[in-house]
Amino acid sequence: MKDFKNKSLESKFKELEDFIDSLEDKKAELIIVLHKAQEIFGYIPREVQQFVAQKLGVHTSKVYGVVSFYSFFNMTPQGQYPISICMGTACYVRDSEKILDEFKKILGITIGEVTDDGKFSINVLRCVGACGLAPVVMIGEKVYGRVTPDKVSKIIQECE
């Protein structure tokens, strides 16, 4: 931790370390620790994954495997309004790709990027579990169902 020059970053690592130290069975709590890490940092970059692995006594590849497997973990910074477009089968056959293209066009970013003002980021999901509402878009925890490309600008305006 001594290598980190940013005091705010140091305090975040300290908060995560304190949380981990409070756990009885550290190795069994990997997902809980990763949720806490994402809450503290906003996402889980490589440095945080390495720190978690070291503190839990597990290999970094195990941490990476969990972070990359579950869609609720992010390895890149997210916008204030993280937009997730479902690309599961039901959504895909109902043109979710066109919805994704419209978000990209309006916001001027692509998958995994954040707008310059930090407000929006775009990601895709494999399934939201709301197939009856396909195609589905989530912004944060809010679900938008039966989205069409012409509704995208209105959805963005609701957030602003």
Automatic annotation (TrEMBL):
Gene3D superfamilies: Glutaredoxin, NADH-quinone oxidoreductase subunit E. This is NADH dehydrogenase (Quinone). Binds 1 [2Fe-2S] cluster. One of its GO terms (molecular function) is oxidoreductase activity. Keywords: 2Fe-2S, Coiled coil, Iron, Iron-sulfur, Metal-binding, Oxidoreductase. It comes from Alkalithermobacter thermoalcaliphilus JW-YL-7 = DSM 7308. Its EC number is 1.6.5.11. It is an enzyme of class 1 (oxidoreductase). Belongs to the complex I 24 kDa subunit family. Residues 6-40 form a coiled coil. InterPro entries: NADP_DH_HndA-like (IPR028431), NuoE-like (IPR002023), NuoE_dom (IPR042128), NuoE_N (IPR041921), Thioredoxin-like_sf (IPR036249). Pfam families: 2Fe-2S_thioredx. Its cofactor is [2Fe-2S] cluster. [2Fe-2S] cluster binds at C86, C91, C127, C131.
